[in-house]
């Protein structure tokens, strides 16, 4: 593999020195910006980072032998990390979208057998190959948006066979697609109709019959639950997450999305790696998350699409919670792959600064999936996941809102997107 020398970036956002823990209360200087910056990449890894003249002097042979990418006039950042998606699914739910526009609520639709149940029905019917092909295409679209690592949840199978199928598809995608995937088991996404009268039995089934197989076959790293009034109680969520923990799966929680329900508090109690959504998180829950160092993964696309008030990012940051942003890419509550739009929501709807937003889609997002030491910043030894933009500074990303400004994507030291096109 020939080295790559990316040179002359007008703004190189390195986010240096943040690999050990997620960043709380980021400020502009945390971006550690290098003007006229350059990056030397060798064997898929970052070998050196600095000013262009400096690196040319330090590595004369390597820089002259390398493939040169000229980033004059361009912003360069670490690849975006998506810490919350429901990537592997079949079908779409545009009819529900129209029902919601006429006043039906997300939960009304789910309780009537639609929502997660509708996608589960279609996902169960789809073959491994069909799911693989559709999800591969979704990954391509994410990559064009600058995403270089994707967390992918199961949760549209709701039984051993189909949860496994989703996770096996994610595993194959991780092997064959250029992007890196991180898998999360989410069997506790909805109570299947067979168990409707006795959700505790479904929890017992997940704990006794499903989780051990998922753990044994190494199909997931995290265990997630939809902790929400009408879905799984705090007590049921605790049970399934503790069982996962005993098998080595780190907890994550869909918490306080539609009601204030104690999900943030549970995340703190279990020292979950992240609590996600949090539109209705209580002050107490927020403070407990801050004390426990749980990353809040906020999903503004979902609030926007369900026409709800955005999570209170400002309050969470001010009270000391580390924040990440993600698309929540899924067919029901956030059918989008646009990180750019999430960043725009961060600045324009959630009171976040441009620096807070950039941290939220890179290094803090990496920490939300336990990858802070590998990705999320441009530092020596880390994976060479880099983005080159058609704008000169990061402020332009928000100023020209609603656009994908990604020009090139380098993933593991290989150029995968050039002039906005997959290559
Ligand atoms: N809230 C629960 N789960 C998903 C949506 C799943 C769906 O509607 O299909 C979410 O994160 O928004
Ligand atoms: Zn979700």
TrEMBL record:
- Which Pfam families does its entry note? Amidohydro_1
Question: What InterPro entries does UniProt report for this protein, alphabetically?
Answer: Amidohydro-rel (IPR006680), HutI (IPR005920), Metal-dep_hydrolase_composite (IPR011059), Metal_Hydrolase (IPR032466)
Q: Choose one Gene Ontology CC annotation of this protein and give it.
A: cytoplasm
| A GO BP entry | L-histidine catabolic process to glutamate and formate
Annotated EC: 3.5.2.7
Q: Please provide the record's keywords in A-Z order.
A: Cytoplasm, Histidine metabolism, Hydrolase, Iron, Membrane, Metal-binding, Transmembrane, Transmembrane helix, Zinc
Binding-site residues for 4-imidazolone-5-propanoate, renumbered to this chain: 93, 156, 189, 257, 333
Residue stretches spanning the membrane: 289-306
Question: Where, by residue number, does Fe(3+) bind?
Answer: 84, 86, 254, 328
Question: Which positions in this protein are listed as binding Zn(2+)?
Answer: 84, 86, 254, 328
* Single annotated GO MF: zinc ion binding
Q: What positions does the entry give for N-formimidoyl-L-glutamate binding?
A: 156, 330, 332
Gene3D superfamilies documented for this protein: Metal-dependent hydrolases, Urease, subunit C, domain 1
Catalyses which reaction(s): 4-imidazolone-5-propanoate + H2O = N-formimidoyl-L-glutamate
Q: Where does the source fall among the domains of life? A: Bacteria
Q: Where is the Amidohydrolase-related domain?
A: 75-414
Name its co-factor(s).
Zn(2+); Fe(3+)
Cite the cofactor comment: Binds 1 zinc or iron ion per subunit.
Q: What is its main location?
A: cytoplasm
Family classification: Belongs to the metallo-dependent hydrolases superfamily. HutI family.
Which HAMAP family does the record cross-reference, listed alphabetically? HutI
Q: What does this protein do?
A: Catalyzes the hydrolytic cleavage of the carbon-nitrogen bond in imidazolone-5-propanoate to yield N-formimidoyl-L-glutamate. It is the third step in the universal histidine degradation pathway.
Query: What is the official name of this protein in its record?
Result: Imidazolonepropionase
